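Dear all,

This email documents one entry for the complex benchmark we are building for the journal club exercise. For each entry we list the sequence lines for every component of the assembly. Then comes the predicted three-dimensional structure of the complex as a token string, followed by one or two observations. Please use this as the template for your own entries, and keep the labels exactly as they appear.
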Amino acid sequence: MDNTGVILCHDMKLELTESINLCAPDQLYVLTDETTHALCWPLLQDVKALAQAHHIIIRPGDVNKNLETLSDVWQALSEQGATRHSLLICLGGGMVTDLGGFAASTFKRGIKYINIPTTLLAMVDAAVGGKTAINFNGLKNEIGVFQPAFRVLLETEFLHTLDTHNLLSGYAEMLKHGLISNYMTLNELLAFDMAEIDYDQLKRMVGLSVSVKEEIVEKDPKEQGLRKALNLGHTIGHAFESLALSQQRPVLHGYAVAWGLVCELYLSHVNAQFPREVMRRVIHFIHENYGSFIFTCDDYEQLYQYMMHDKKNKGGIINFTLLNDVGELRLNQTATKNLIYETLDFYRENMGI
Ligand code: GLY
């Protein structure tokens, strides 16, 4: 384990028991959604330290990452006798760890929580780094706090039963971590065969990927500067995600990020000399594995408006994280509307739509 409390598990039951003992809680609560309660809880249910745990089960899905569910969790903690010395274990994907982390961080001004992410996206991103949130007023992650988990336990056994789409969704964030770190990491990610998964190699790559994020979060936990590196691919990616949702054809977050990476690598190439050959290799991998997000030039203005309203902007200026090269960051970049339209043209021409 490192000093941010993330453990790549060798023996999850033992590591969880040790973490609970270290906390010495008066009461223990396990938060799951209906899916992770059915599929993931069985892997933990014979842990002796959890024998007396209270269970809080919420409805799954991002639509339930809201005030009502949060209130249900507070209510359950309150009615079942939680005190400031209690511990909440969040077992699930990013929805459970985001909402559970926020519930724990606010209940009685904050109790400890442990994240056990069960999806690849949550393992390499959502559950690590202390961002907690719920959606509010139609806006994603609108209300939340920065409050790191006491521990994050990464058990890659859960990935064996994760469907390919959700695996690829998390893998997009790993590609992002590769791009902002170094060629060795990126090359291994691009050479990995997603059709024939080597789970031992994937486990090692998850550990490496998380360490890229942790190193950044340690230096800039509240996103004052360096943490913006983690936004690579997300400005245009979020616009794709919002457009897809508005057209009733939602896409998984990581898919939108992968398509956003295609665009933002092009912007990096044009504005920051990012090498064309590397851009081509990444685009090829994304096209092969993620297919394309279909849109026409009639959607450009709407996509541009989504970018204009991205919460990372300051003073009405679209904020991009770009790269000079792999691992060479250019934070707080912007682009003209013309260049953004040209980027969308590039995307359509190079992604076969
Ligand atoms: N998901 C990006 C971050 O944690 O900063």
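Observations: The chain has a mean pLDDT of 96. The CA atoms of residues 313 and 319 lie 5 Å apart.
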